[in-house]
Amino acid sequence: MTMFGSNLVLYEEEFDRINAVLARLWMDANAKIVFLVDKNGQQIAAKGDLDKVDATSLASLTAGNVAATDGLAKLIGEKEFSILFHEGERDNIHISIVGQRLILVLIFDERSSLGLVRLRVRKAAAELEEVLIQMASKAADQGEAPASPFAEITDDDIDALFTE
Predict the structure, then answer these.
(1) How many domains does the chain have?
(2) Residue 43 near residue 59, CB atoms below 8 Å
(3) Alpha-carbon dihedral of residues 61, 63, 70, 136, nearest 10 degrees?
């Protein structure tokens, strides 16, 4: 069980569904890498040739990119830009917001096309949104999300750490 975003809990069943969606998207879009991160930059799942990239930095920078773009959107009166695309000499990055919580990232090269990627991402995003709905429903059925592991730490405990 993992928590991410606004106390959303990810159980093994949903994690397996997310991995299946990413694996299918990776194959169907002929992508190099597909990964899913939350808006804080925490990687949730990934598929593809991750050995050639720093996945942690990629996840963090993607979240930062989305945050910056959200700022740009607000400046011109938009709620958000739900899809971002970066074209490079060899590789391209397609970024889309899923369920206003998650960021779906797909890295592809000339073996695929932007049209194919957009088509496959649209389908995968809809499936991922269904998983989010299932997660929210399961969390509601089971009551509140688990308390933070830091909930029992007081200010006095923190002060004690730095005064000893």
Answers:
(1) 1
(2) yes
(3) 170
**Both tokens of residue 144?**
């509140």
CB 106 within 8 A of CB 89: no
Question: How sure is the predictor about 10, in pLDDT bands with cuts at 50, 70 and 90?
Answer: confident
Mean predicted confidence (pLDDT) in 133-155: 67
* pLDDT digits 0-9 by tens, 66-93: 999 999 999 999 988 889 999 999 999 9
Question: What confidence tier does 19 reach under pLDDT thresholds 50, 70, 90?
Answer: very high
Q: Are β-strands 83-87 and 102-108 bridged in parallel, bridged antiparallel, or unpaired? A: unpaired
Distances (CA, A) of 51 to 1, 54, 95: 26, 8, 20
Q: What is the CATH number of the domain that holds 137?
A: 3.30.450.30
Specify whether the backbone of 64 is left (phi greater than 0), alpha (psi in -120 to 50) or beta. alpha
Domain hosting 159: range is 2-163
Torsion of CA 67, 68, 74, 80, to 10 degrees: -50
